[in-house]
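haha ok so turns out i had the wrong file open the whole time. this is the CORRECT one, sorry everyone. sequence first:
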Amino acid sequence: MLLLLAVSGVFSSCSLLDHHTMATYHKHVVHAPFDVVIVPGLPHDTNRLNPLLKARMLWAKELYENGTARHIIFSGSAVHTPFIEGMVMKIMADSIGIPTQHTFIEDKAHHSNENVAFGISKAISMGFKKIAIATDPIQSIYIKKYIRDNHVDLAILPFSVKAMPVYYNAVFPKVKADAAFVQNFVPLKQRDIEPKDRD
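then structure:
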């Protein structure tokens, strides 16, 4: 009985998360097409592809191919591993068929809020006006307050919770990311930075 209640609780939570995610998506996608969509990075591990990173990449491809996004900015510095996340993602984007002339790199962001702020700054500097951020359901909730308080015009395009197993199980090409490798790398947690920057 306890196991049944636990399983029911998990499914209920997933259902609520998916409902919230899809409500957010449908609220914002009506303003498509977007000049550019920002996709936040995740640490790159040469031994194992992060399934959530794969999901974000496949979602970015879907948004580009269905015309929701005209261009994509991949955002992220070398934070926890010695690979610049935005650059790794652009290499991945090339490998899955997103035209390279429509993808760009933001390589300074250390955390989610900076993905948003630096991604928007990059987009504006390139002349893009209609901007969205595309990510997974959990991160979309995490960054919503920051966006509401600081970037109210930014659209949020999370993918569905129900799509996650599909993305996770999809075949994804291996990539050579040597160009994104940072020599003499120091992980963020070991750098001499102010505590407020450790989000």
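Residues 1-12, 194-199 have pLDDT under 50 and may be disordered.
again sry for the mixup
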